[in-house]
Amino acid sequence: MTPVLRPLALAALLLSCTGAKADDVAVMISGGFKSTYQALLPGFEAASGDHVTTLPGPSMGTTHDAIPQRLARGEPDDVLIMVGSALDALVADGKAVPGSRVDLALSPIGMAVKAGAPVPDIGTVDKLRAALLAARSVAYSDSASGVYIRDELFKRLGIEAEMQGKARMIPATPVAEIVARGEAELGFQQVAELLPVPGIAFAGKLPEAVQKNTVFSAGIAVAARHPAAGRALVAYMASPAAAPVMARMGLDPAKH
C-alpha cells in the first residue's frame, strides 16, 4: 500500500471496527470525482472489508444512467457522490438524507484538443475568446460544467451568436472521447474528467476571471441499506490524506 493510502486505510479501519460483518455498499457517482474515487477505493475495501458496487452516471439530466433517473427507477443505493447543487436537489426531492452532505472537492473546468493538434493558448479571457471563435467545432458536457459553458460563458465572452451551430452539448459520453475521435476541435469539461482520457492534449484551465468551480459532494441515500458503511466511505473520501490523490486528478480538496 502506498504512503498516501496508508493513513486512509487506518481511518477506514477505525471507522468500520464497530461493524459485525462486511457490507455491500452501492455508490452512485458522477464523472468529475470518479477517477479520484477509483484511486482511493481499493484502500477502503481492503481496510473495511466492505465490497463497493459503483453505479456511474451524470449528476443531472435525463439520460438513462443519470443519477436522478437511476433513483427514480428505484435502483438500490447507499452513497451519492455528485455535484453539490444536484445533491441538494435530491435532498429536496426526498431521495437523499438531509444533513448528510459532505463536500469533497472543487473541480475547475478545462479545455482539451486532439493529441497532436495545435494547442491554443487560453491563458487569458481574450485568448480564450479568440480560440473559441477560430474553432470549427466545440463540445461541452451535459452536466454542470457544460450548462455553465452554454448558459453563461459564451454570453460573458460576448460570442453567444457566433457559437450557435458549431458548439454542442454531449450527452452521457466524456467530452474528451469526442475530441480524441476528432469529432470536435475543442472540448470543455471538468479537468478531472478530461485528464484520464487517452488521445487528447490538455490545453489548460479556464482563466480565473471566467472560471466556474463545481463542488463535488457526498451524501447518503434515503433508501440506503447500509447507511453506517456509507458514512464510513464518505468520511474516508473526505479525509485530509486524500488531498494528494485529488490534486493529481485535477481537483482541489474542499475545506472543512
TrEMBL record:
Short name of one Pfam family: SBP_bac_11
GO annotation, biological process: molybdate ion transport
MF term (GO), any: molybdate ion binding
Domain of life, per lineage: Bacteria
Key words of the record: Signal
Keyword field contains rRNA-binding: no
Signal peptide: 1-22
Gene3D superfamilies according to UniProt: Periplasmic binding protein-like II
Record has Signal as a keyword: yes
Name by which UniProt lists this protein: ABC transporter substrate-binding protein
